[in-house]
Amino acid sequence: MARVKNKDTKPEVKVRSVVHRLGYRFRKNRTDLPGRPDIVLPRHRKVIFVHGCFWHGHPNCPRAARPSSNEAFWRKKLNANIVRDRKNIHLLREQGWRVMVLWECRMRDEKALLNRIKTFLKEQ
Q1: Angle at 97 between CA 29 and CA 8, to 5 degrees
Q2: Could you give the CA distance from residue 17 to residue 29 in angstroms, rounded to a whole number?
Q3: For residue 7, what pLDDT band results from cuts at 50, 70 and 90?
Q4: CA-to-CA distance for 36 and 10, rounded, in angstroms?
Q5: Cα separation of 13 and 62, whole Å?
Q6: CB < 8 Å & 24+ apart, contacts of 109-115
Q7: Rounded to an integer, what distance in angstroms lies between the CA atom of residue 67 and that of residue 77?
Q8: Domain that residue 103 falls in
Q9: Structural domain count, the chain
Q10: Cβ contact 110:116 at 8 Å
Q11: Does 77 reside within a domain?
Q12: 53 in a domain, yes or no?
């Protein structure tokens, strides 16, 4: 697991590219916010998390299938990730941030991704 990247993954770079093309300026991985969001737009009080389906437990996604070996370990680890994500999103919302979660499996269609991000960033 030491080889698993926790920032600057391909999906994150793709989303940052879209946000930048839309003309927005942002900060990456701000450690002072709960959950260290992947993209932070301070002026707009918005954050974007880019979640890997496996690591963050995307519901009803084939990529989120849990390994059949060492089941107790993986159940504990992945459930803890899901609980932590919910807690961090709740804390951010309490602090007045608007939160968007983008799942890795839903980034293949770049036009749809662009529209989802554009809609999120334009809403008040």
Answers
A1: 20
A2: 15
A3: confident
A4: 17
A5: 23
A6: 110/14, 110/18, 113/14, 113/15, 113/18, 114/18, 114/21, 114/22
A7: 12
A8: 1-29+37-63+99-109
A9: 1
A10: no
A11: no
A12: yes
Task: Name the one residue in this structure whose structure tokens are 């529209």.
Answer: 115
pLDDT in tens, 18-76: 999 999 999 999 999 999 999 999 999 999 999 999 999 999 999 999 999 999 999 99
Q: Can you name the residues that pair with 101 across neighbouring β-strands?
A: 49
Amino acid in position 2: A
- What are phi and psi for residue 49, nearest 5 degrees? -105, 135
Distance CA 17, CA 5 (A): 19
What is the pLDDT averaged over residues 68-93? 97
Task: Give the pair of three-digit tokens for residue 61.
Answer: 């996604």
CA distance 115 to 110: 9
Q: What is the DSSP string of the chain?
A: -TT--SSS-HHHHHHHHHHHHTT---EES-TTSTT--SEEEGGGTEEEEEE-HHHHT-TT-GGGPPPSSSHHHHHHHHHHHHHHHHHHHHHHHHTT-EEEEEEGGG-S-HHHHHHHHHHHHH--
